[in-house]
Structure formats: C-alpha cells, structure tokens
Amino acid sequence: MLTPLSLVLLLVPAILAADGSYRTLSTASNPDWMMKVPDSASLASISIPGTHESMSISGGDLTECQEDFGASADSLTAQLNAGIRMFDIRLRVNDGNTFTVHHGAVYQNANFDDVLNKLDAFLGAHPAEAVVMRVKQECTGELGSCTDVSGQASFIDIFDMYRDNSPAAQRRLWAPSVQRGSAAGTPIMGAIRSHIVLAVINGPQGGRTEQYGLSQFSGWNDGDSAWVQDNYNVPNTGAIATKRDQVRRFLDTTNAGDQTAMYVNFCSGSSLFAEPYQVAGGGGGTQGVNPFLLIYLGQGTDVHAEVHRTGMMMMDFPGGDLINKIISFNALLV
C-alpha cells in the first residue's frame, strides 16, 4: 500500500533528481562573465548557455520547461544572473496590438514588455554583457496551441511597434538585427555589449520571417536546419538516449565544423510519454540530457574529440554546474 510519503515521491521525481546539471539554476552566479570575452571575439566563437522556452514556468509538467522564480519575467532575471545569455521567447498576438508570452495554449504570466524591461534593467546594470534572443510566433490555431487575437496588426508589424516605441527596445535592440529588409552579419563582442541581438523571428510553422535577425540563420526552420539542432520530438523516455546522441553529435560538429559559424544546439525535447523535465533530468531509467552533457563536457580528448566551444546550448531546467561548465570554455578566448 502506498503511504502519503511514497505518493509524494512519485509525484515529484523532478525535484528529487535536482543536481549540478538539473534544476539548480540559482547555484550559478555569473552576472558579468562576458566582461572577460575580448571585444574582437566573434559571436560564433563564444560558448553561450541558453534556455529553450525561456519563459515557460506554468501549466504543469507538459508545458513547464524552466524553474519558476516569479511571473512578469522575474524568472528571466534569475536566468540572467545565473549566466544564461540566449533566450527563446514565444509570443501570442493579443488585444491592443500587444504580445503575451505563451507555451502553446498556456499563458506564462508575462508580456513582451516584461521581457524587454527586464533585459533592459539587467544590461543597464551589466553593460559588458550581451543577450541573444530568438522570437517565435507561438500560435498555430491547432489543438493544444493558442490562437492569435483577431483584428490586430500582423505579427511583424507589432514587433516593429515594440522596436520603435518601447524605450527599453530602443535602448537595447541591436539595430542591424531588427530590420525587416536586411539581415545582419555575425557581430563581434565589442559591437553588441549592452544590447539584445535578434537571432531570428520564426513563424508559427517554423521558417524565418522576412530578413529579421542574423543572415546565417536564413534557413532556420522548424526542427533541424544547417546550423540548428532541434529534434524536439522525443516519443518516450527510452528515446531520451537518442536525443542525447543528437546533442552530442551536433556538439562534435560545432567543434569540427566551420569555426566562423554559429551553432544552436537544443538539448530539449518532449512528448506525452517523455515530458520536458524527464528529457532534461532523466526518466524511466534513462539518463537525461543535462547530466549526460555535464559529464561529456568534463571529459578530455582521451575519451572523445576535443571540445573547445559549445556554441549556443538551449536547455530545459539547467543546473548551476552545467551553466558554469559551458561558460568556462570562454577562457580559451582570452
């Protein structure tokens, strides 16, 4: 017979599995780590910890992807202080030509103004830092997703309204990356300090919207593309092993491939039978991506090919040790 304690243990396995790789974001404190990155360093050379569905803290195990440090983008501030520098922001068109943050049908208790204002405040206090942001139009209108409010301006027209009218956006958006008709080249660190670099705007079905973002990501579609690994369908907990291998192989490509190119490696995945916390931390007896990645990054060339950079690692529920480990590779740039 199950006791009350055993019921609790069954219901909260993710909390019990917390370790240096998983669900321990607040154990990392790296608010100024980019200060040591040389101005001449290309964005492509920098190892950047990032988060997938960066604002997804509500809705239960199927939708939550990050630890909850508070609504109105307070969780974003916690990630910034830990050292996260790439964010995956999913937006719904709402009344008044505004954006609200969603994961599928679930409102994440934050609006795009919250995102911009928290990034603005952080970059104002830490001007040597820079942030990379991917924006995606979240609503597909399909079952399980959201539907944009009708009668509003188009998604990109609303984005331009924020760009042109939000004081935070005007201070922080790196202008070459937020132009509808012209993409930006890969910047160096000295050009983007205290700014938000837009990597891409993706439409609701994937694919790049107009020319917003960085030119290298012109082919950023739903799932994998030339410079992006995003095999997000993990059909069951046994398939977490396949996801681990996809992350590993793309990390190897990041190190052996074009060293002038940016690589974005999504460590996340989910399905009805492998929820985000299980893919990240482990489930069904299968090691999660996060603990695997922490071990892999700590191994030397006697075990596998050299890792001298990680690219942009997009994680669910990252732990403090894993964030610190990714940042540590930037010592090679000095």
From TrEMBL:
Keywords: Signal. Residues 1-17 form the signal peptide. Pfam families: PI-PLC-X. Coiled coil: none annotated. GO terms for molecular function: phosphoric diester hydrolase activity. Residues 39-180 form the Phosphatidylinositol-specific phospholipase C X domain. InterPro entries: PI-PLC_domain, PLC-like_Pdiesterase_TIM-brl, PLipase_C_PInositol-sp_X_dom. The keyword S-adenosyl-L-methionine does not apply. GO terms for biological process: lipid metabolic process. This is 1-phosphatidylinositol phosphodiesterase.
